[in-house]
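If you are new to this repository, start here. Below is one unmodified record pulled from the training split, so you can see the exact layout before writing a loader.
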Amino acid sequence: MKKWKLYLAGTVWSTIFGLSFLMTKGALDAFSPFELIFLRFALATIALGALSRFGAFKLSFRGKPRLPLVLICLFQPIVYFLCETFGLRETASSTAGLILGALPAVVAALSVPMLKERLSPRQSIGLFVSVAGVVLIVLDGRSRAGAIGGDSLRGVLLVVGALVSAAFYNVFSRRARALYSPLETTFAMMASGAVFFGVMVLIELLVSGSRGGLGMFQRATPAAWGAVAYLGILSSVVAFFLVNLSLSRLKASQASIFGTITPIVALVAGIVFRGESLSLLELVGAAAVISGVWATNARQA
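And here is the target side for that same chain:
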């Protein structure tokens, strides 16, 4: 595949993910975290299953080792979405986007021991600067905890947990590229998410003493269902397929560089559509994250 197509794919998935924080915040007004995650992955699994059933593509898992796929599905979607969705209940979508913008730098760091890639002195400095930016955003969330509209420390730390989980997913997906096609990886991720979070919804219903699961349908507004459709089709099926495609053709550190677009989109969307504010410390942290990511992943002269 030509490089410009891979670059276009990277730009598209990072933009979709940038808007997903806004959609998730909106959908959480109507659904519980477990309900929302289950609905998005159930919709994604049905869509991919239907396409496969009607011959759009072929899925073949027989005779292939399962451990690489299990590790991918563990970190993404299970751990990642547990951290991200619960974290977004207590943080602004713009804050979450800024923290997750450090993903390329964290992937570059993990690529050294796990993929045997080397970091130049400039890349090492960029990694330090990017992580320092995340620390600034975390400290700002701690200082504003309890304030009206402010981020809680717990929420910020959960988003940091999502960041680490996403980094491991990137590395494991890169290692499994010779075993599974991008569509096979994407389908496994969606199906595992639907099953795991479907069980979580059932447990939630049992614990709450509810006799039925119709509450989510009664509470949801058309806007909430629109957010579910966006998250299930665009953010799950389309975006994750493009991510897996990128990871199958590019180095993990190269593919993740497109994540620098995500925090910018999330920041603008949060401010424009939800009226979220941006503190000076967050602005400094965002600048550090983005500049550090570019220093870590830019080509050497």
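Two things worth knowing about this chain: The chain has a mean pLDDT of 83. Residues 222-249 form the longest helix (28 residues).
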